[in-house]
Every structure is written in structure tokens, then in C-alpha cells.
Design brief:
single chain, 230 residues, mainly alpha, 0% strand, protease, PrsW, cell membrane, transmembrane, hydrolase
Amino acid sequence: MSVLSILTMAIAPGVALLSYFYLKDRYDPEPISQVLKLFLFGMILVFPVMVLQHALLQGLGEDPFVFSFVASSFPEEFFKWFIIYFVIFKHTSFDEPYDGIVYAVAVSLGFATLENVIYAFLSNLHFADLMMRAFLPVSGHAMFGVMMGFHFGKARFTPERTNRHLFYAFALPFFWHGIFDYILLATKSYWVWFMAPLMCFLWLRSLWKVNRANAKSPLGRITREERIKI
């Protein structure tokens, strides 16, 4: 495979998934500039996370559970949470619950896309490997982003429960990301029997959260009221 082919296949899944979730916004799509900024922030996160993961592995060893939850899931999901909270959470463009999903997915897929490119070139991946990464790690990051963004949206628009949902915005992606990695590491020869139902669950749960976040949009209520008047 040529360098251009590998690069295209490594980038395409992240861009396709981000486009899918961006277009799921029913009422007021986010400014492209903001979405791309969060995507870029996600890419930048790869470098400090890789350094931190290397340090953690040196200190804690490579036990599958420790790697999955401490070295992989925790730093990746924490830094994504950190970026969303301090960059976009209080921004004026965050004006409906679904926006949290768009921005969190953008950060997550920015991270997953650059990580995919690095793996593709350093590990000399072939077509089948890149397709597998598209269906597993890249899709997984998108699902974790939906979880995170859904609860950021809840935190933004239910002030009485802000702290609870900010906690969920980190804790749930952290937990499921850890489970995801642990299955791949601990069930080497029969991982598909666990991963297939897990991915089905994550996708169905994510689509439910997408619909629920859209349904809670104040812009949607305004649109319905306008239709009634007409």
C-alpha cells in the first residue's frame, strides 16, 4: 500500500464518524470552526498522553488490568474531559444538550485519528488491520465521546445536578474504555465473543443518548411551538 493510501484509510474512519454525529444535530449545528478546534485539541492530546502512559507502564508494569484502566483509560478520558470542560463547556456556542455530544466526539475522534495514523505507520498495518481498527478503537473512542458529551450536556442544562453529571462525564467513559481494553488484552484468542456484544451495546446506547439529547433541546421546543402557531 502507498503512503497516501495508508494515510487516507487511517484518517477516514474518524472523519466519517465525526460527520455522522455532527449531522445528527437536528436543530442548530455547531460552528465548524469550533468542532475542528476541538478535533485538533484531541489530536494534540496524543503526545502528552503517550508520554504519561509510558511513564505509568515503567512504574506499574504491564498487567492487563493495570494497563487497561490506569495507563490507558484514565489518562485518555481525563484529558478529553479536561479539554471539554475548560475549552467549550461554558462557551456561548454550547447552547443545547446535543452540543456536548458533538464536542466530546470531536475531541475523542481527533485523538483516535492521530493515534490511528501513528499505529498505521509504526506498525506497518495492512488493509485488514486498518479496517479492524476502524470498527474497534476508532468506533470505541466515538462511543466514549458520546457518553462523555451526553453528560456534559446534562451538566450544562440541569444546574441542580451539574456536579453529578460532570462526574458521570468522566466516570462512565473511563469505566467502559477500561472494559474495552481489558477484553482485548485478557481474552486474546476469543475476544470477539465479548467484544461483539459490547460494541452492539455501546452503539445502541449511544444512539439512544443521541436521540434523547436532541429531544431535550430547547431549540426543538421552540420549533414545535412555532409549528403549532402556524
